[in-house]
Design a protein that fits this description.
single chain, alpha/beta, 8-stranded mixed sheet, 6 helices
Length: about 190
């Protein structure tokens, strides 16, 4: 059975976006980006809400350029190779290849997908990730916490959800970013 993994880059106070919707402060440096690539490499399918999908679509057409870092170029290849499922009631058709649109997030369908997938699944976006955490679908959580306080905005983890987690690994980067890897106990 494949795992469903929720990953987020967040401020130390737990936000993926500040109160103005900005997240430029979360852009990974080369060391962190290379680490993220290794986390993403085994992913076979990305699950996104519309807003996260529209943000990630950038990677579909970003030109390969000698000016871009190796980690940047590597992530573009990883992202393009994966399947994508977008949960949206407003999008009618995808703007990227290997993508399908689903109107509703159905926990039973996600369980079936996990059971049939030969590669792990990643759920992106705080809102959709929160739904999956609340539904008991998430197997692992990866948080990359940046050395910044933004004071408010969109939370990385949902309110009202209580789960027991087991710390599997942690890693500290030169930039002050800390990676925490947890397994969710059923």
């Amino acid at each position: 059975m494949a795992k469903l993994i929720y990953s987020a880059i967040a401020s130390l106070d737990g936000y993926v976006e500040d109160e103005h919707g900005g997240f430029e402060w979360a852009a990974p440096d080369e060391e962190v980006h290379a680490f993220v690539n290794e986390l993403e490499r085994p992913i076979g399918t990305y699950l996104y809400g519309r807003r996260m999908y529209e943000t990630m679509m950038y990677w579909e057409t970003v030109p390969a350029s000698a000016d871009e870092s190796k980690a940047f170029q590597d992530f573009a290849e990883i992202w393009r190779a994966a399947e994508k499922i977008v949960y949206s009631r407003t999008l009618q058709k995808p703007s990227t290849v290997r993508t399908r649109i689903e109107a509703d997030f159905d926990p039973a369908a996600i369980q079936r997908l996990k059971a049939s997938a030969d590669r792990d699944l990643s759920i992106g976006g705080a809102e959709l990730g929160g739904e999956a955490l609340a539904a008991g679908l998430v197997d692992e959580v990866h948080l990359l916490l940046g050395p910044i306080l933004v004071g408010g905005g969109k939370r990385a983890l949902p309110d009202g959800v209580r789960l027991q987690l087991e710390l599997m690994d942690e890693h500290r980067f030169g930039s002050g970013v800390v990676h925490l890897h947890y397994r969710v106990h059923a």
